[in-house]
Amino acid sequence: MARVVIFSGAGISAESGLSTFRDTGGLWEKYRIEEICQAGCLSWNRENTLVFYDARRAQLGDVVPNAAHEAIAKLQQRYPKDIAIITQNVDDLFERAGCKDVLHLHGFLPNLRCEKCSSTQAVGYEKQERSLTCKVCSGSLRPDIVFFGDPAPMYQYLYEAMEDCKCLIIIGSSGNVVGMDHFAKSIKHSILNNLEKSSAIDEKVYTKVIYKKATEAIDEIVKDIEFFLKA
Ligand code: APR
Question: Is the distance from the beta carbon of residue 192 to the nearest atom of ligand 1 less than 6 Å?
Answer without folding.
Answer: no
